[in-house]
Design brief:
The protein has two domains: about 5-100 and about 285-305, Rossmann fold, CATH 3.40.50.720; about 105-275, Rossmann fold. The chain is built from twelve helices and twelve strands. It has helices spanning about 15-25, 35-45, 60-65, 85-90, 105-120, 120-130, 155-165, 190-195, 215-220, 240-250, 265-270, 285-305, and strands at about 5-10, 25-30, 50-55, 70-75, 95, 150, 170-175, 185, 200, 225-230, 255, 275. The chain has a seven-stranded parallel beta sheet with strand order 8-7-6-9-10-11-12. Strand 6, helix 7 (about 155-165) and strand 7 form a beta-alpha-beta unit. Helix 1 (about 15-25) packs parallel to helix 12 (about 285-305). The two termini are about 35 Å apart. Bound molecules: NADP nicotinamide-adenine-dinucleotide phosphate (NAP). NADP nicotinamide-adenine-dinucleotide phosphate binds near residues 79 and 204.
């Protein structure tokens, strides 16, 4: 008996339990672990109607071009900088993502990173673990309360970070493409925001429009007493300039969840003074990852039922 389920190409490297919600309703082909991708394509390409990708991954335009019947690209995650949107729009493909459900977790990580920098929690942990405590207390750190925090990209996650930092007693300001009706000061220029901040938190989307917004000049404006936190995308920060600034002491430190060439992290960044580095874990909780999987399912269901997508990417 033939299988009438719509066929999907899954280019996201996700554990089986997160793919189960879709596998009941769709015939899924695993691109990531296919032993021979060419053989897989020649077998299934004409029948593929949807592609499922991961926000941290890239969907090659050349791959989409080889799928004549594809109708939707469903992204597991909120960032869609890895999807060739111009190609999708030109073909009338629908594109969905999973916003909102990961906002709290990612904002939590941003605040945790800032707290780790201010209070030097890694240093304090090292002090105890290396047996230094009996010889004397850990060095004093810096208070979070009263610090000026600038947020680059005051969207869903940026606002969730701001709400948390308000509770910590921080003074907030932001930069984006336009001012918003919020009780925080707006800086139309990023260098000016960096200059006026004790910490700059990056929370804008990745992609060509934001590539290297945080460059050597912004880092210099942040200054030797300033910290950088990036939970957005590695592409937003000029990683070479950051490494140079950290080694030269131009900035005080950086806490990062995202990198220019994940999962590769330059040794010079790992070795730099004053860094806290996480392996892209902003949304990495079981609860949120399941909610993201269900978000993918809802968009696929809506598409194949001929209904509006619950969470379409703007313009798709
Ligand atoms: P969002 O609601 O769309 O917010 C993005 C904000 O960035 C908007 O307020 C936008 O404001 C601003 N922005 C856009 N382009 C800009 C530019 N050129 N310069 C300055 N600001 C700009 O998105 P979100 O849900 O908060 O997610 C933000 C990003 O976080 C995602 O795109 C994703 O890459 C990243 N993320 C990372 C993790 C992780 O695991 N580390 C998890 C989730 C998300 P204006 O329109 O006013 O400019």
């Amino acid at each position: 008996m033939s299988d009438s389920r719509p066929e999907l190409l899954v280019v996201a490297d996700l554990p089986a339990w997160l793919q189960e919600p879709w596998q009941a309703e769709f015939l899924c082909h695993d691109w990531v672990h296919a032993p021979d991708r060419e053989a897989l394509l020649s077998r299934v390409a004409p029948r593929i109607r949807g592609v499922v990708t991961h926000a941290a991954g890239v969907v090659e335009e050349t791959l989409l071009a080889r799928l004549p019947g594809v109708e939707i690209v469903a992204c597991f995650g909120v960032g869609y900088d890895g999807i060739p949107l111009a190609h999708c729009r030109s073909r009338g493909l629908r594109v969905s993502n999973t916003p909102e459900v990961l906002t709290d977790d990612t904002a939590d990580i941003a605040v945790a990173l800032l707290l780790m920098l201010c209070r030097d929690l890694l240093g304090a942990n090292r002090h105890l673990a290396t047996g230094q405590w009996p010889r004397g207390p850990a060095p004093l750190a810096t208070a979070m309360a009263g610090k000026r925090v600038g947020i680059l990209g005051l969207g869903r996650i940026g606002k969730a970070i701001a709400r948390r930092l308000e509770a910590f007693g921080c003074i907030l300001a932001y930069q984006g493409r336009q001012p918003q009706e919020v009780p925080y000061r707006y800086y139309p220029e990023l260098r000016a925001l960096a200059r006026a901040s004790d910490a700059l938190v990056v929370a804008c989307p990745g992609g060509a429009a934001t590539r290297h917004l945080v460059d050597a000049e912004v880092l210099e404006a942040l200054g030797a007493k300033g910290w950088l936190v990036n939970i957005a995308r590695g592409s937003v920060v000029d990683e070479d300039a950051l490494i140079a600034a950290l080694h030269a002491g131009t900035i005080r430190g950086a806490a990062l969840d995202v990198y220019a060439h994940e999962p590769m992290v330059p040794q010079a960044l790992i070795d730099a003074p004053g860094v806290v580095l996480l392996p892209h874990v902003g949304s990495a909780t079981r609860e949120t990852r399941l909610a993201m999987s269900l978000g993918v399912l809802c968009n696929l269901r809506a598409h194949f039922a001929g209904e509006p997508l619950p969470t379409p990417v703007p313009g798709c």
